[in-house]
Amino acid sequence: MAKPRRNVKFPHRNQCGSAEGVYGDSNSIPTSPVKLTALPEDDDDKSLIKESDYEKKKQTFITRTIWTLVMIGIFFGAMAAGHLYILAIVTAVQVITFKEVIAIANVPSREKKLQFTKGLNWYFLATTMFYLYGESVIYYFKHIVVVDAFLGPLATHHRFLSFMLYVFGFVFFVATLKKGHYKFQFTQFAWTHMALYLLVVQAHFIINNIFEGMIWFFLPVSLVITNDIFAYICGITFGRTQLIKISPKKTVEGFVGAWIWTIIFGLGMTNLLMRYKYFICPVRDLGANAFTGLECSPNPVFLPHEYPIPVWLRPMVLGHQTIVVAPMQFHILAMATFASLIAPFGGFFASGLKRTFKLKDFGETIPGHGGITDRMDCQFIMGFFSYMYYQSFIATYAPVTVGDVLETVITSLSQEQQLEVVYGLQKYLVGQGIVNEKILECWNDLLQNGN
């Protein structure tokens, strides 16, 4: 058996890229640079790699499909269960998206030295939600809130309380500024407020849409989803021209094709939803669901109207001079156009944000789909637009509501004047035969005995 040779060094590259000699000295024996080549892989190794990639893609596809079906089931289940469950989902989405976006700018090493950083972020979120949710509850349920002994004072002073809560947070932030960390702290302060405006405030208008009627929530959401699906289908089928550099896979053909299909979907879905009061009625009872239904006088926008057809269009409709259609069918054209041409820029904005911080996804909240923010980037601006459009062109306003009257009586009149209002209203109801006269007598007796 031959003895192993010692002190033998094999050729290899030094740090400068030249090949060293067998004695380790590149100057002693001149050699040419050694060309490094990868060893050829066996066919078995290549097949294993291909099989491994295939299995990963297959598993990702299965995971995405399962969770897509889960999300669809939760969504439609919540819609059938009632408005309260949809409100809970939207609230959860607000909180999670805020958490995901705030986490982008976090620097753990600095947060360890600044113990109040995360606490302030969540405090400002709670303050913002207290203000926004309070405004909605007071507006839509004024007839219940203002007459409650506990909620009444809160409703009266809600805006002042919200302002003071924010001021306390502001003062605490300034008081906790720490030398050497000013830039990080002010960056966190600005980042938090940006997230509150772009996510929490915009998403809150989706809640107002729910109160106005389930159709104003479902249609905007479904339009964005439909546009996203058909943008992908049309893009891989006809796409040739790049739309925007920040999202290289988006094409002009997919953008336009999705617009056309979103309008078609919007017209068909609107025609279906208008037939059910559960969708078109504003919610005044959070206990209602798809099985109990809702009752209301439909908004005129859902009732058929007769419109004259321009002369130049009559040959295209076989000479008909008028057309009967609900005004909502015209409004959905505007909403579908916004969902197709403007809302996607919310997604482009999110893509730019991720590229800035070199992120693939905002989080891993949904297996196979990334974070909640990745799925909701277009929904926020669409919900905001839907609320503004509804309030500007569709909402019907009653001159005076019961809640308005109660609020005026409670906040503007003394207790003696309030009793006079109640007594005068009772006398009127007795005179109309709606209320028995004995009730008025009992009321007077109770007041006298109480005094």
From TrEMBL:
The annotated pathway is: Phospholipid metabolism; CDP-diacylglycerol biosynthesis; CDP-diacylglycerol from sn-glycerol 3-phosphate: step 3/3; Lipid metabolism
Bias type Basic residues, positions: 1-12
- So which domain of life are we looking at? Eukaryota
| EC top class named in words | transferase
Name its cellular compartments: Membrane
Enumerate the transmembrane spans: 61-79, 85-108, 120-140, 160-177, 189-207, 213-234, 255-274, 330-350
Reaction it catalyzes: a 1,2-diacyl-sn-glycero-3-phosphate + CTP + H(+) = a CDP-1,2-diacyl-sn-glycerol + diphosphate
Q: Lipid biosynthesis among the record's keywords?
A: yes
Q: Which GO terms describe its molecular function?
A: phosphatidate cytidylyltransferase activity
The family database entries (InterPro entries) matched by this protein are listed as:
PC_trans (IPR000374), PC_Trfase_euk (IPR016720)
**Keyword annotations:** Lipid biosynthesis, Lipid metabolism, Membrane, Nucleotidyltransferase, Phospholipid biosynthesis, Phospholipid metabolism, Transferase, Transmembrane, Transmembrane helix
Which EC number applies?
A: 2.7.7.41
Which parts of the sequence are annotated with region: Disordered?
Answer: 1-31
- Kindly give the membrane topology term recorded for this protein: Multi-pass membrane protein
Give the family this protein belongs to, as stated in its UniProt record: Belongs to the CDS family.
Name of this protein: Phosphatidate cytidylyltransferase
